[in-house]
Amino acid sequence: MNKPLKIIECPRDAMQGIKPFIDTAAKVAYINSLLKVGFDTIDFGSFVSPKAIPQMRDTAAVLAQLDLSNTKSKLLAIVANYRGATDACQFEQIDYLGFPFSISENFQMRNTGKTIIESLETLKKILDLAEKHQKKVVTYLSMGFGNPYGDPWNPEIVAQWTETLAEMGVTILSLSDTIGISNKESITSLFEHLIPLYPAIEFGAHFHTTKSAWYEKIDAAYQAGCRRFDTAIKGYGGCPMAKDELTGNMPTEKLISYFAEQKIKTQLNPLHFESAYNNALDVFK
After folding, report:
1. Taking the CB of residue 207, how many other CB atoms lie within 10 A of it?
2. Max Cα separation, the chain?
């Protein structure tokens, strides 16, 4: 059975590392333009400490002004702890809670201030909370393709953690190339092994990439069976907790061009995408 292709647009990821505060009205206008395009999901904001990510301090205010009257896109908010998940669950409009779970001890501490074991307990609580509020959890396997901190990494470690998360009830797992070091071989190896082994899990690809590496990453993931892709227009953004210099997100327009070349249909409206793309050029000056 063919799995549907899902493109998750991530304005939150694009904005979060920008230091000058982006006006709430500008965020609302941009995300509203994205809601018309036809993306499966919009990763629109996060309920995290304003001290950690000042740019996202107005997520609730942005949500209150989004026009959801004529869109099929679902909304995803990132949470880093149980308090954030509790805050997000107060909003009926939010469909998904995104939780970053790293297999790098150093990055987990840097990103959430907790150890891997502590974060595992947090994830268990968030899964239970989400179920009570009729929401789903997207778990990001951060540093899923390696890390710059010297923490142990190999495909077997990724597989072991995937098994642990599957046993906990994780049903959406996005392998995250947090610092942009994945390549064709590592992507193919992980997806070809994990996707058949866990049919109940929807695997995704959250790639950060340089300008020259985007094609091989998309192609390797798609050919290995991945049908869920996180992107950001123009490749804006990256992870401000990963290192000092950001490696950009996977550009949405590059993903679209890949699928057009492969004659693979998406649900995206070209005219609305062009409008959102032009809007992005104004927001990310």
Report:
1. 28
2. 48
pLDDT (tens digit, 9 = 90+) per residue, 139-192?
999 888 988 788 888 899 999 999 999 999 999 999 999 788 899 999 999 999
Look up residue 128 and give its DSSP letter: H
* Residues 170-196: b if buried by 16+ CB within 10 A, e if exposed: bebbbbbbbbbbbebebbbbbbebbbe
The tokens for 57 are 């301090």
Residue 262 vs residues 14, 257, 266: alpha-carbon distances, Å: 27, 9, 11
Separation of alpha carbons 241 and 103, rounded Å:
15
Task: Judge contact between 206 and 182, C-beta under 8 A.
Answer: no
Residues 6 or more apart whose CB falls under 8 angstroms from that of 214 comprise: 207, 235, 250, 251, 254
In angstroms, the CA 135 to CA 114 distance is 24
Domains present along the chain, CATH in parentheses: 6-283 (3.20.20.70)
> pLDDT tens-digit profile of 92-143?
999 999 999 988 888 888 778 888 899 999 999 999 999 999 999 999 998 8
Q: Is 218 helix (H, G, I), strand (E, B) or coil?
A: helix
Q: DSSP label at 249?
A: B
Give residue for tokens 């390797």: 220
**Helix (H), strand (E) at residue 229:** strand 228-231
Is beta strand 6-9 parallel, antiparallel or unpaired with respect to 41-47? parallel
